[in-house]
Amino acid sequence: MKSVNIRDIGEQYSWGSFIDGVTWDNINDPGLRAELQQLFEDRGLLIFENMEPSPKMQVELSKVFGPLKDHPTKSVPRANKDLEPGVIELHSLPTELDETLHGIAVVNGKPVVSYLPWHFDHTYNDELNRAGVLRAVIQAPEGGRTGFADGIELYNAFDPELLAKIEDLNAIYTLDTRLTQMRFGRTFEINGDPAYMAGVVAEARRFPRAIHPMVWTRTSGEKVLHVTGFSAEGIENHENPEGDALMEEVCQEVNRKANGYFHNWRPTDMVIWDNWRLLHAVEGCHPKYERCMHRTTIKGDYGLGRFENGKKIGEVDRDIAPLDLPA
């Protein structure tokens, strides 16, 4: 069996590993799979290098860590319907800038597309999927990196007085993931929503709000700071000016303290991250560049999330403001 090479992502990080040498010759070896599963549990982020750049290999690598899960929203494009469920495509085509900058974020004074702030996936769902596996099909020649930040490291770096206020609190999240509607922790500007968000908002009318703890404890004993302003509507039982001020303070502390690793993509890279532990982000790229990512989702649930008031999908029809979308 071909051996694999494992190394840390850097001295400044207490988590994350690079792995080189996983091929079709060894990917189904039980010993290697067990080693990779334990490494994932220990390190939270695994970056596989020199992989065969194919959807089939991405699916096979994903299945090392658990069964695949289809994406919970129907409006997200699927990459390959002939493969296992859950392969979604995140595709940004080249766009000409205009005066309105509709759907384009401005970060540090620069217009970018495919931008996402620090967040964890499926905040709006009662179940929190185990992990995501990502690869770059088309990467922008500059920008477009994906960032990762460890929630254990974040907890240990956080302001102790601020931690004491939120240790036992829960955040409320919605499926309405428009950046224009992001209330907490914003460090960007944006004017208007891209047209594709209409499908997401339509689905949001059927989704109840989801509740997740702002801090949780792993079975191994470490505490994880796991909160995002992206899609957040506030703090459970504290939806008032004081609660909103606390949520803003927490989200801005995340922005200050996140020790982010930002990955420069190559076509042969595949990355898996622990969605229960890590936050991730996308720095965005210039609108003139095309960027296409394929993503799989690993089933699982940490058992701490729930829908508000015990409701289920389809049992609500919340009043969401009319969309202001470009023609």
From TrEMBL:
GO MF annotations in UniProt: dioxygenase activity
Species per Swiss-Prot/TrEMBL record: Novosphingobium album (ex Hu et al. 2023)
Keywords: Dioxygenase, Iron, Metal-binding, Oxidoreductase
Family: Belongs to the TfdA dioxygenase family.
Coiled-coil region list: none
Protein's recorded name: TauD/TfdA family dioxygenase
UniProt cross-references to PANTHER family, sorted A to Z: ALPHA-KETOGLUTARATE-DEPENDENT XANTHINE DIOXYGENASE XAN1 (PTHR43779:SF2), DIOXYGENASE RV0097-RELATED (PTHR43779)
Cofactor names: Fe(2+)
